[in-house]
Design brief:
With 170 residues, the protein is mostly loops.
Length: 170
């Protein structure tokens, strides 16, 4: 018959490390991580250079001619001019024999000029004259003061969503 089991022996020395086993198959891809917080807004870029000045617009049409002003008052009457010299009297002819009654004699010399009469009533207004030529263009006026800054425009539409970022470290 088999004898009783003897006491356990002391532990043997550790064996050498075995060779590395083959690499396991790749696991399934993990779910996409939550989107990170939005970054702070970048500083505003510099203002671009000013564009060239546009061409001058065309000259506007000439406005209509204004209405004719009212007629001024009649000026004061000027002083009467000096009286002209009287002409010389013609020589008297010789007396003839009395004949039958002759015809009415010639009209005698003109008497001196009487004083000037009052100004007559004003005649009707004549037709309007042709329009005069356009005067030369005046010098350019001084530049006006700068206008106030305009109101801020409406907010632009939201941009399209960017691509999903690379996954961060596990």
């Amino acid at each position: 018959e088999t004898g009783a089991q003897g006491p356990q022996g002391i532990q043997g020395i550790q064996g050498e490390t075995g060779a590395q086993g083959p690499q396991g198959i790749q696991g399934d891809q993990g779910v996409t991580g939550a989107q990170g917080p939005q970054g702070i807004q970048g500083i505003q870029g510099e203002t671009g250079a000013q564009g060239p000045q546009g061409d001058q617009g065309v000259t506007g049409a000439q406005g209509p001619q204004g209405i004719q002003g009212i007629q001024g008052e009649t000026g004061a009457q000027g002083p009467q001019g000096p009286q002209g010299d009287q002409g010389v009297t013609g020589a008297q002819g010789p007396q003839g024999i009395q004949g039958i009654q002759g015809e009415t004699g010639a009209q005698g010399p003109q008497g001196i000029q009487g004083i000037q009469g009052e100004t007559g009533a004003q005649g009707p207004q004549g037709p309007q004259g042709d329009q005069g030529v356009t005067g030369a263009q005046g010098p350019q006026g001084i530049q006006g003061i700068q206008g106030e800054t305009g109101a801020q425009g409406p907010q632009g539409i939201q941009g399209i969503q960017g691509e999903t970022g690379a996954q961060g470290p596990q």
